[in-house]
Amino acid sequence: MSILQKLTSAGRGRSLIGLDISSSAVKLLEFVKRGEQIVVEAYSVEPLPINAVSDKQISEPEIVAEAIKRAVQRAGTRTKNVAVAVAGSSVITKIIQMSASLNEHDMDEQIKAEADQYVPYPIEDVNMDFQIIGPSERDSGKVDVLLAACRREQVEQRVAAIELAGLKPVVVDIEAYALENACQFLTHQMPNEGRNKTVAVIDIGASTMSVLILHDNDIIYTRDQAFGGKQLTEDIMRMYGMSYEDAGKAKRSKGMLPEGFETEVLSHFLADMAQQIDRAFQFFFAASAAHAQIDQLILAGGCAHIVGVDQAMQDRLKIPTVVARPFSRMAVAGRIKKVMLDKDEAALLIACGLAHRTFDVVDF
Fold first, then answer.
1. What gap in Å lies between CA 192 and CA 173, rounded to an integer?
2. How far apart (Å, rounded) are the C-alpha atoms in residues 68 and 312?
3. Which of 29, 4, 15, 2 lies closest to 349 in space, CA to CA?
4. How far apart are CA 192 and CA 188, in angstroms?
5. Alpha carbon of 102 to those of 17, 108, 170: distances in Å?
6. Which of 211, 218, 213, 176 is nearest to 195 (CA)?
7. How far apart are the first and last CA of the chain?
8. C-beta separation of 175 from 23 below 8 A
9. Which of 79-88, 225-234, 324-333 has the highest mean pLDDT?
10. pLDDT digit string, tens, across residues 137-163
């Protein structure tokens, strides 16, 4: 599903890059296939200055565009087509029932005509798309249709930054769906490869914690909470008189911070992180009486790179915990420094789901 329709007609099978624009960085990822093997062809992470992206909204499109240009240059890719995502908090999704006799064009027209029933905004202010899920259990003559709608300004902000960077936006996805798409590359880390298991994927960025819970490898629950690594960065700044940029680098590298950091600062942040994750699980259990336990926790996002975070969460939550490694079964192009990719891997999960869209059978 894309809530931005095709913008060009460049032809079937054209490559695209996944571009995750977060509040702290632009993350670029490109896949190709050689036979049946997926190859990480290009990647880069370009930091963003504070407040260029705030609360998932691009406030400085020119600055973001310059970061995208640097990311493209650093990655060494010539691909122009881009898949990007909007935050789940800015998207309305709803499953509706429609007549099975309608073709997609007629469904599109009917949804537009009845949009005020589903979306609390004027139709001219939103981008919408839909996807047929399958026959409806409620009515044998109907199909279940997943409808997604996003305020147009959210899409336009990303489109503007991408076009200013000289690229072509062809897909605007939803972050939760991009995460779900990437989870297929985490099954090797799951007990029984996720079959008959309940697995939580927690992507913790600078300011938002995205919770994705799967059962039997199907998404059953999503939630966003206001919590992220920015809190730890600011704590380091205050405690040790560092700049924001230096504090961000220091928190990912063991040995760059003074003795006592782990007890004075980090332990408090990790306790907060565990509390936030546990809170998300309590919301999940309250919403889903069929599930009473989490079989595994997979950590992703920038906070997953904190040294020892997986063991800390496992000790506090009493749930087996690992750091996401989506590329461990993929080949890596020779021009990529594997040691750098390994350091950034867990933070590239949304970009991974977006980059995989290049294998969708769509016309760009």
1. 29
2. 34
3. 29
4. 8
5. 34, 10, 26
6. 218
7. 14
8. no
9. 324-333
10. 888 889 999 888 888 888 899 999 999
Both tokens assigned to 108? 């599109």
Contacts of 295 (CB under 8 A, 6+ apart): 191, 197, 198, 199, 319, 320
Q: Which two tokens stand for residue 175?
A: 């972050």
Residues, the chain? 364
Provide the phi-psi class of 74: left if phi over 0, else alpha when psi is between -120 and 50, else beta: alpha
- H/E/C letters for each residue in the chain? CCCCCCCCCCCECCCCEEEEECCCEEEEEEEEEECCEEEEEEEEEEECCCCCEECCEECCHHHHHHHHHHHHHHHCCCCCEEEEEECHHHEEEEEEEEECCCCHHHHHHHHHHCHHHHCCCCHHHEEEEEEEEEECCCCCCEEEEEEEEEEHHHHHHHHHHHHHCCCEEEEEEEHHHHHHHHHHHCHHHCHHHHCCCEEEEEEECCCCEEEEEEECCEEEEEEEECCCCHHHHHHHHHHHCCCHHHHHHHCCCCCCCCCCHHHHHHHHHHHHHHHHHHHHHHHHHHHCCCCCCCCEEEEECHHHHCCCHHHHHHHHHCCCEEECCCCCCCEECCCCCHHHHHHHHHHHHHHHHHHHHHHCCCEC
What lies within 8 Å, CB to CB, of 36 at 6+ separation is none
Give pLDDT tens digits for 263-286.
889 999 999 999 999 999 999 999
Mean pLDDT of 86-101: 83
Distances (CA, A) of 363 to 8, 14, 16, 55, 357: 8, 8, 11, 32, 12
Ordered structural domains, the chain, with CATH: 17-88+153-181+329-359 (3.30.420.40), 93-151 (3.30.1490.300), 187-323 (3.30.420.40)
Q: Which of 302, 7, 342, 307 is nearest to 163 (CA)?
A: 7
Other CB atoms within a 10 A radius of the CB of residue 234 amount to 12
